[in-house]
Amino acid sequence: MSKDELFTTNFTKGKRTYFFDVKKSNNDTMYIEITESKKTDDGFERHSVMVFEEDVLDFRNAFTKTIAIYNHLHEQNRNKKKESTIEAIRETIPNDYKAWSLEDDKALEYYYFQGLSIKEIAETMQRTAGAISSRILKIGLNTSADDQSD
Fold this sequence. Notes:
This protein is of the alpha+beta class and 150 residues long. It is built from 4 helices and 4 strands; from the N terminus they run ββββαααα.
């Protein structure tokens, strides 16, 4: 660390390394330097942003707000992807990922005691065999549900 560097930290992801430095200028004022260093075929490409002492609090506030908005938008995007995945699954298994109602539990119990296999119950109730097996155990119909898994 050079004499003008008071603190430094970094992290690397792939070909990029990000440096966060607190430095002191010639006139003894502090500033933050954020540097991206990217490995290229010719060596390294670097880009820096310097945030001067009088701007640090405003920078922090703007950056904090940006991260909060990013996190919110990222979560929305993740939920949309999850919804579209569930919608795709429901094209072939219409009741997959739907909550179980009391009527569903009664129907499951009826089919189970009629001797239908897990696979047959799943097809009838339009759910996966795993969902049927799990629900049989959850509502306590029989701990040996594996006997009917054909």
